[in-house]
Design goal:
The structure holds 2 protein chains of 2 kinds. Chain A is mainly alpha-helical. Chain A has 2 domains: 94 residues, RNA polymerase sigma factor, region 2, helix turn helix motif (Rna Polymerase Sigma Factor, Chain: A, Orthogonal Bundle), CATH 1.10.1740.10; 75 residues, Winged helix-like DNA-binding domain superfamily/Winged helix DNA-binding domain (Arc Repressor Mutant, subunit A). Chain A has 9 helices and no strands. By secondary structure, chain B is α+β, with helices and mostly antiparallel strands. Chain B has a single domain, classed as START domain (Alpha-D-Glucose-1,6-Bisphosphate, Chain A, domain 4, 2-Layer Sandwich), CATH 3.30.530.20. Helices cover 27% and strands 40% of the residues of chain B. Chain B has a 7-stranded antiparallel beta sheet with strand order 1-7-6-5-4-3-2, sandwiched between helices. Chain B is globular and about 50 Å long. The chains are: A mainly alpha, B alpha+beta. Chain B: This is Carbon monoxide dehydrogenase subunit G. Chain B: It comes from Kitasatospora indigofera. Chain B: It holds the Pfam family Polyketide_cyc2.
């Protein structure tokens, strides 16, 4: 399933009511967006996914008044979710050294029996690239803009992340 | 990757925290951990017609006038006779209530052998910050009264 498939229909009237600060509309919008945000924050922030989802929705609902083009809602939410997920995961200080090197070598590879294990060994930044490119299906330029890195960096991170997956599958 | 894609859940207590930090107006937000399971907590909390007048000294009655799925309409009458119509969303572990001037919400999530219960209440009117001391006193008293309910003791 791609990110586009998982997007619910959002009534523009609901967004307008939320922008006026209507509490019921803000609650309904939160309910609609939470699963989508959870699917982005989960793979990137892992055990801190619920915190990242909470922080994302705080930023989204606080700033919903600034959204002019309602068609851009999910792209806007996705960018906030990726940034918050990386920030929350990094804040939790679970990022140490170069996790890709850990995946690339060592006997621990044998233990990586599923995708979840491999994902857990990548840094939040590499997981963010995988989520944006492989799950959300965005292009390198958009992924670079979300992560504030050049498209070349997106390409190299993606290459290394995919290579890590391949090595684990083939080990 | 997509088959094993972990999805982060936003439980009701986290939903309440999001609203506490985003709803406009002045809000009182509190959380307590009760030594009983969520079903018992929610059996008390969701009985709005009987519990709200007990918890909030400013409410004389709270009457549900219409119910459709998890959407309710209710009329509150204050101790001075003032009336307010509320839109309510009520489902297990979650309740959000809003009138023209007032907003309220409750949430419950399992925690250990007990339940984390959260409440949120406030005014939607401009300048509501001035009412902050009143709001905090009302909110604290309501949570204290809720925790003292005989059905919520271990």
């Amino acid at each position: 399933m791609t990110g586009t498939d998982s997007r619910p229909q959002v009534d523009p009237a609901l967004v307008r009511a939320a922008q006026r600060g209507d509490p019921i509309a803000l609650g309904d919008l939160m309910d609609l967006l939470a699963p989508y945000v959870g699917r982005i924050c989960g793979p990137i922030a892992r055990q801190d996914g619920p915190d990242a989802t909470q922080e994302t929705l705080i930023v989204v609902l606080r700033n919903i008044g600034q959204l002019r083009d309602h068609a851009a809602l999910f792209g806007w939410v996705r960018a906030i979710a990726v940034r918050e997920a990386v920030r929350v995961a990094a804040r939790a200080k679970r990022l140490s050294g170069d996790p890709l090197e850990e995946v690339a070598g060592g006997a621990d590879q044998q233990l990586a029996t599923d995708v979840g294990d491999v994902l857990a060994r990548l840094s939040p930044e590499h997981r963010a690239v995988l989520v944006l490119r492989d799950l959300e299906g965005v292009d390198e330029t958009t992924a670079g803009a979300v992560l504030a890195v050049p498209p070349g960096t997106v390409r190299s991170r993606l290459h290394r992340a995919r290579q890590s997956f391949r090595k684990v599958w083939e080990s | 990757m997509s088959q094993d894609r972990p999805v982060a859940e936003l439980d009701p207590i986290r939903r309440l925290r999001v609203l506490a930090r985003t709803l406009p107006g002045a809000l009182h937000h509190a959380e307590i951990v009760l030594p009983v399971p969520p079903e018992r907590v929610w059996a008390v909390a969701s009985d709005l017609e009987n519990q709200l007048p007990l918890l909030l000294s400013t409410v004389r009655s709270f009457t549900v006038t219409r119910a459709e799925g998890d959407r309710l309409r209710a009329r509150a009458v204050g101790t001075l006779g003032q009336r307010a119509d509320f839109e309510v969303v009520l489902r297990p572990g979650w309740c959000l209530m809003s009138s023209r001037f007032v907003v309220g919400a409750m949430a419950a999530t399992p925690e250990g052998d007990g339940t984390r219960f959260g409440s949120l209440g406030g005014f939607r009117v401009p300048g509501a910050r001035l009412l902050r001391p009143v709001l905090d006193a009302l909110g604290d008293r309501a949570v204290r009264r809720f925790a003292e309910h005989p059905d919520l003791r271990a």
